[in-house]
Amino acid sequence: MTTPTPLQPARWSHPGVTLQRAHVQAMRAHVAAQAPLEACGLVAVHRGLSQRVYPIPNALASPVRYRLEPHAYLRALQDMDAHGWQVGLIYHSHPRGRPYPSAIDLAEATYPDAVYYIWAPVGQVWVARGYLLRAGRVQPVPVRWV
Fold first, then answer.
1. Is residue 3 part of a domain?
2. Could you list the residue range(s) of the whole structural domain that residue 73 is in?
3. What does 86-115 look like in DSSP terms, one character per residue?
4. What is the tally of structural domains in the chain?
5. pTM of the full structure
6. Residue 131 and residue 146: Cα distance in Å, rounded?
7. What is the chain's pLDDT, residue by residue, as a tens digit (146 residues)?
8. Is residue 6 one of the residues assigned to a domain?
């Protein structure tokens, strides 16, 4: 058996996340509006189902990196806590790339149990894929829409 390299898939179990279609549409609109800069935000979940999308300003205002603006990030976490929700999904965009974690994404991942949902344009359509990012490894995760 070979050990996966950082950009090769690892194998962990995760039930995935189910997103309400309105939440998918909100994320898609946010990432498209922020292009050519990377957009970022959080999605609160309860029992695996999305509850609210929190678009958060990219403190780096960069086309190739993101950092959640600290005050908006804290407000989102406080709101989630007040509702009994968890950070289930962290989303951001790769306006010039593909919907796959970059080396920077892997190095800066801080939520090992949250799904990282990465948006990228394919032609004129924004698409996204979900991943767990743990210890420098990537695991695709199912993200369903209802």
1. no
2. 17-145
3. EEEEEEEE-TTS-SS--HHHHHH---TTSE
4. 1
5. 0.90
6. 19
7. 444 444 444 555 677 899 999 999 999 999 999 999 999 999 999 999 999 999 999 999 999 999 999 999 999 999 999 999 999 999 999 999 999 999 999 999 999 999 999 999 999 999 999 999 998 899 999 999 99
8. no
